[in-house]
Amino acid sequence: MEYNINGLKVFTEGDKKNKAIIFVHGFPYDHTMWDYQVEALKENYFCVTYDIRGLGQSYVGDGQFTMEAFVWDLYSVLDGLKINQPILCGLSMGGYISLRAVELEPERFAGLILCDTRSEGDNNDGKIIRSNAINKINTEGVEAFVSDFVPKCFHKDTPNNLPELYNKIFAITKKQNPIGVKGSLLAMLSRRDTTLSLKQIKMPTLVLVGKEDALTPPKVMKDLANKIKKSKFHIVPKAGHMTPLENPMFVSNKISKFIEKNFKSEK
Ligand code: MLT
């Protein structure tokens, strides 16, 4: 099913009576990042994906976005669909949104899955990199920016091993609205550091990272996992930063096992 909630394009698959999982994609991608997981999990779970404001098919508006606004958007999807205590799964920017959402209102969620993300905010160098990216989009366009950025997200072998997938994802990013992409960059640049809240996370948490993730390397994710009490950490082989796409079976199996173990009897 497809919905428009608060300007956001939302997609659901599976039986609403089942335990819900809400997936939050990374930057500068869209909800299709989770297609493989939705396909693998929809029989047993109610799977919800959506396009983050400004990206994919969601409303772009004036691009004045913050991480806080992205969190309110996530809550509005849950409220709009009347979903109680889903498992929240976010990758990279989706992970920033997830970590802040859990910091603000932990009682909304039953469990947390963090893929290829970090709790720290941008440091000074990171802020300059974001500013340069905005400048590049202003002067050369989105295509020039994503041509630099997207290859860094994948394992070096993925363009050769999975050319169809790589080209499909690349094509999605080239079509993104420049206002939405710049809005996401500003939201990431100005986001809050959530590291101190990690030790407050009481819910079962699964942490996944690509073995060759150059943007949020395994060491960063291991440190993050160590700060969360009930966390389980796995390195995803044959993957860079785009684990759900580069090694979909591994990621879907880990998610499935994590939910079975921690939420078995829940509908
Ligand atoms: C993402 O995949 O969402 C981005 O790499 C996040 C970022 O640029 O910090």
> What's the name of the CATH homologous superfamily?
Alpha/Beta hydrolase fold, catalytic domain
Structural class of the helices, strands and pairings? alpha/beta
What's the helix count?
11
Mean pLDDT: 97
Tell me, what is the CATH class?
Alpha Beta
Domain count: 1
Q: Main sheet, how many strands, which sense, barrel?
A: 8 strands, mixed
H/E series:
EEEHEHEHEHHHHHEHEHH
CATH architecture label = 3-Layer(aba) Sandwich
**First-residue to last-residue Cα separation:** 20 Å
Q: Record the strand order, biggest sheet.
A: 1-2-4-3-5-6-7-8
Helical coverage, percent range: 40-55%
Beta content comes to 15-25%
What is the CATH topology classification name? Answer: Rossmann fold
Ligands in the model, by name, code or SMILES, are: D-malate
Outline: globular
Rg computed from alpha carbons, rounded to a whole number of angstroms: 17 Å
Report the strand count: 8
Q: Could you name the ranges where pLDDT drops below 50 across 5 or more consecutive residues? A: none
Written description of the protein model:
The structure is a single chain. The protein is of the alpha/beta class and 267 residues long. The protein has a single domain (2-266), classed as 3-Layer(aba) Sandwich (Rossmann fold). The chain contains 11 helices and 8 strands. It has helices spanning 35-41, 67-81, 93-104, 124-140, 142-153, 158-161, 163-174, 178-189, 218-227, 243-246, 248-263; strands at residues 2-5, 8-13, 20-24, 46-50, 87-91, 111-115, 205-210, 231-236. Strand 7, helix 9 and strand 8 form a beta-alpha-beta unit. The longest helix has 17 residues, at 124-140. The model has no long low-confidence stretch (mean pLDDT 97). D-malate binds next to loops.
